[in-house]
Amino acid sequence: MRLNIDTVMDYQLEGPSPVLLAVEVAAIPGQDIRHSMLEILNATHRHEPGEASVGQRIWANVASDRLNLRYVADVEITRADIPLETLAQSRWQDLPGDVLSYLRPSRFCPSDQFMPFVAKRFGHLDAGAKVAAIRDWVAASITYVPGSSDAATCANDTFLSREGVCRDFAHLACTLLRAAQIPARYTSGYGPNVTPPDFHAVAEVWLSDAWHIVDPTGMCTASDLAVIATGRDASDVAFMETQAPAQPYYQNLIIRKM
Predict the structure, then answer these.
(1) Cα separation of 258 and 248, whole Å?
(2) How far, in Å, are 8, 74, 114, 118, 144 from residue 35 at the CA level?
(3) What is the C-alpha separation between 121 and 111, in angstroms, rounded?
(4) Which pLDDT tens digit goes with each residue over 150-181?
(5) At 258, is the pLDDT very low, low, confident or very high (cuts 50, 70, 90)?
(6) Domain segments of the chain: what residues?
(7) Which class is domain 84-237?
(8) d(CA 149, CA 20)
């Protein structure tokens, strides 16, 4: 699938300051960036490698109190949709070193607190079938409610409130998957069917010696998500970080299938 992405951001800053961004589609297998353009007014910028060597972060040194950004990209998604149930789980001792960290609890994914629940609810399943069951449980148990969570909401809160946005769905899925001893990471991206249009969050799982996209909101699949960045949880892949509060004037994402 080919996607045309057009992102516009206009934010009020407290003054001239550095801003750390993660908005560009990553140059990774499964997606081919045919064309891209990044424009940040009144700023110089440089790139740094993203978490897990996926994508790039942008340091923007904004010379005024206003961040004005436009990012446009034409991306071909070549990643296939593979049924999770056909995928195998690696033994703990066979996992690559850079995958092991995605078994551990993190700030928004306290997986160690969910091991009894996961063992009782999903213990009769294995490998990809267990991943599919966890994805389906999150999808059925959590209601998508815009504005129902904030930057401090973690998987415990979502499990209790049973509502959230894509960030919360992804955190809870990663938490339950890690509690099941299946490596899971939090991934941001662009999807054409995300409603309302925004930066999207999904989980990725390590099965059959590769990462596979799992979206418990049901808005995206592997074949139509343009990945931006990935990490342990949202703290690793925020689309924008500032040292002082920033207030949005305008933000708009348009993602078209071509």
Answers:
(1) 29
(2) 17, 5, 43, 43, 33
(3) 15
(4) 999 999 999 999 999 999 999 999 999 999 99
(5) confident
(6) 2-78+239-257, 84-237
(7) alpha beta
(8) 23
The Cα–Cα gap between 169 and 137 comes to 11
Contact call for residues 34 and 75 (beta carbons, < 8 A): yes
Integer CA distances (angstroms), 115 to 84, 191, 214, in order: 21, 31, 20
Q: How confident is the model at residue 27 (pLDDT cuts 50, 70, 90)?
A: very high
| Residues of the chain by 3-state class (helix, strand, coil), percent to 5 | 25, 40, 35
Look up residue 185 and give its two tokens: 């990471």
Q: How many residues does the chain have?
A: 258
pLDDT tens-digit readout, 101-135: 999 999 999 999 999 999 999 999 999 999 999 99
Q: Could you give the CA distance from residue 139 to residue 59 in angstroms, rounded to a whole number?
A: 35
State the CATH architecture for 2-78+239-257.
Answer: Sandwich (2.60)
Q: How far apart are CA 25 and CA 231, in angstroms?
A: 15
From 31-35, 49-53, 65-69, 221-225, the region with the lowest mean pLDDT: 49-53
Only one residue has tokens 């490596």, namely: 183
Q: Is this structure's pTM higher than 0.85? A: yes
Write phi, then psi, for 94 (nearest 5 degrees): -100, 0
Taking the C-alpha atoms of residue 175 and residue 4, their distance in angstroms, rounded to an integer, is 32
Strand order in the sheet with 17-21: 43-49, 56-62, 17-21, 240-241
- Identify the residue whose tokens are 């946005």: 165
Residue found by looking up tokens 């700030």 in the block: 107
Residue keyed to tokens 């995928």: 87
